[in-house]
Design brief:
435 residues; alpha/beta; Rossmann fold; pyruvate-formate lyase- activating enzyme; 2 domains; six-stranded parallel sheet; 16 helices; 14 strands; 35% helix; 16% strand; disordered C terminus
């Protein structure tokens, strides 16, 4: 039996392995031949490059839905059954079913082996959804051997938790992973990390410091392994200096942090009250003292945002010397609370935007409250341009903490790369949005 597993691509995909499909491979029967294609590394020509396999599995985000459906339709046209899973099919299973023989809703640990067996006995069902959420002590070891040996960044990816205790209005995570915050046994994580081949790694968790008691215990256990790593973190777990200190001791060199907005009113409406803008600078300074670089994420288009938000946000990001920043237009991802709110308010102007060839051309897909759609779009572009301008790059170099590894080696090459990226992809108008 031959199973092909596929990650569809869009322009903004990073050259970092996706763990979902190696986990599926680990759940597959030992006699199954597993092949893997990352559409970003090896673009699939749907007219002639389709593999001769028995079953195809594709993981789908909203930002990759159009490409995923294109690939799925091509395989089904050849008579090869397709299974779709991931965040987008979980939110919109009926839409996904139009392009698949079967759809997996939510996590797959308990349903994938049954699905494969049903396929073998010609009893494949239209939808699969496990009862409850996965006990992460039963999560299989990802089969990293299916991944290409080259072309990815030289690092390993690891997951230690799922779920989220927060209910951010615009976020898709809770819809897929649930409210319960679940963790892998620390001993299993440490054993996995110890045997990874690269010194550098990335935690794929949405919040590596979301549960400080668990997280600090994990960080302490990582110290002897002498890894260098980066991940994502919520501001709520970074308020205690002790937590930041253990992050640094464990090898953390960079964190992606969702600041989202400098307006407390925006954050309350967005159901993200755990962020307090009055604490931002102190937390940033604490991370910098311990040599941890920060990639800050900011969203434009909240209800309280007016045209002044762009300059205010970029000035803050430059003054606090963020290593990097990502500026996003607020997007109504399907089945999120924000999607339903703007639709109920009559402000959703582009439903199913994820099926457009170039959704960025019509973004924002809703009507902002205090500016025009054009002002929001142009302000977003200006923010990227100003933050990654050459004067900003020079001003943001942290001379005080320059000896840190990421500043000493990576700062200027990374900034030049982002400067070019901004000119080509943002100002050129070809960028898609994060899902």
């Amino acid at each position: 039996m031959k199973i092909e597993l596929i990650v569809p691509a869009v322009e903004e995909n990073a050259r970092v392995p996706n763990l979902a499909l190696p986990i599926l491979a680990g759940l597959s029967p030992t006699d199954a031949q597993i092949s893997f294609t990352d559409d970003l590394l090896t673009p699939i020509n749907v007219e002639k490059d389709l593999k001769e396999v028995d079953l195809v599995g594709i993981t789908v985000l909203s930002k990759t839905a159009l490409r995923a459906y294109e690939i799925a339709d091509a395989y089904r046209k050849k008579g090869i059954p397709v299974v779709l899973g991931g965040i987008h099919p979980t939110a919109l299973p009926d839409e996904a079913k139009e392009h698949a023989d079967s759809v997996v809703l939510g996590e797959a640990e308990e349903v994938w082996p049954r699905l494969v067996e049903d396929f073998r006995t010609r009893n494949l069902k239209s939808f699969y959804r496990q009862e409850g959420y996965t006990d992460l002590s039963k999560m299989p070891m990802p089969r990293r051997d299916i991944l290409p040996k080259r072309r990815y960044l030289p690092l390993d990816v690891v997951q230690v938790s799922r779920g989220c205790p927060f209910r951010c209005e615009f976020c898709t995570v809770q819809k897929f992973f649930g409210e319960a915050y679940r963790f892998r046994p620390i001993s299993e994580v440490v054993d996995e990390v110890r045997h990874l081949p690269h010194r550098w790694m990335m935690f794929t968790d949405d919040n590596i410091i979301g549960n400080p008691s668990y997280s600090v215990e994990l960080l302490k256990a990582l110290v002897p392994l002498k890894k260098k790593w980066f991940g994502q973190a919520s501001l709520s777990g970074l308020k205690k200096v002790e937590n930041v200190e253990w992050l640094a001791k464990s090898g953390c060199i960079s964190l992606f942090i969702g600041f989202e907005s400098l307006s407390k009113k925006n954050l309350v409406v967005a159901q993200k009250p755990q962020n307090d803008p009055s604490e931002y600078r102190e937390i940033i300074e604490s991370l910098h003292r311990f040599g941890i670089a920060i990639c800050g994420a900011f969203i434009f288009g909240f209800d309280e945002d007016d045209p002044s938000v762009f300059e205010e946000t970029v000035s803050f990001a430059i003054q606090t010397k963020l290593f990097s920043a990502v500026f996003m237009i607020l997007t109504p991802y399907p089945e999120t609370a924000f999607y339903h709110r703007v639709r109920n308010e009559g402000r959703l102007v582009q439903d199913q935007w994820w099926l457009l060839e170039k959704p960025e051309d019509s973004a924002p897909h809703f009507l902002p409250m205090k500016m025009t759609a054009e002002t929001l779009r142009e302000g977003w572009k200006k923010a990227w341009k100003e933050f990654y301008s050459l004067p900003s790059i020079w001003r943001r170099f942290h001379w005080k903490y320059a000896p840190t590894l990421i500043n000493r080696i990576g700062y200027f090459p990374f900034q030049v790369m982002q400067h070019r990226f901004t000119k080509k992809k943002i100002l050129g108008g070809r960028r898609r949005y994060r899902g």
